[in-house]
User: What shape does this take?
Amino acid sequence: MSGSYIARIRAALPSLHPSERRLADTILSFPGQIASYSATELAQLANVSNATVTRFVRRLGYENFDQARQAARATQQTGAAVFRVSASDQGPEAALMAQIAQGRQNVENSFAAISLAEIDDLADAVLRAGRVWIIGFRTAQAFALYLGAQIGQIVPHVTVLPLAGQTLAESLGSIATGDVVIVFALRRTVRQLPALCRELRNSPARAALISDVTPQPDADVSPLETELAPQWRLRVQTAAPGPLFNHAAVLTLCHILATRALERSGQTGRKRLLAIEALHDSLDEL
Assistant: This one.
């Protein structure tokens, strides 16, 4: 068999013995559990024997349980929420406090590695850019839109990609010298992102990468950083005690970057804000 361990389980379901089917159903209910359980613990959870666990993982194409568990961990690290759901007897109040504490920790850990000088350098580049391109897919697009809306109050030429109804190529062809591209790469990244980063590296714009994708243990940079070769590398932490990533540090970074751009824009930025406010009053929008 090939594919993820979940794909292998689904493919094997029709041919499983009853006890193996019970084990498969247990894993599919909480597919992330196998990443942290021992073979004995998993057998007890599914009410099957250790021998059943051994036969089951071999039927899936793994040599032993440890190999299956490593495959599960690799899948879990990609960020799919279903692989991060686990059975827990933790009460809602304790879970809430854990989420708040993790969000605070993510912000502190992220900004321990991101200096104000880096943020100010990127803010200055945004202010001088002919156009600012902000790119984000899936969850990351929410932050791209937020950052675009905030920066758009300060500088006039901001484009958030991808645009509805257009291919990326139709937009990327307009990137020019003097532009700045800000790329969000938050797990789970789309398959086309590495190729997009390669194209951006060959473009005349300078690039910034905001990412929670960490380098491999034996590497200094992540694969996306290698593809993009960004001038600014802003790594954020999104760890969470539950199935959904905690993006508190991402939002904080967007807020600080936009705030510093406004503060460093001086009179020009204030004049643009005043003009926008005058239009709000004229149109009676707010």
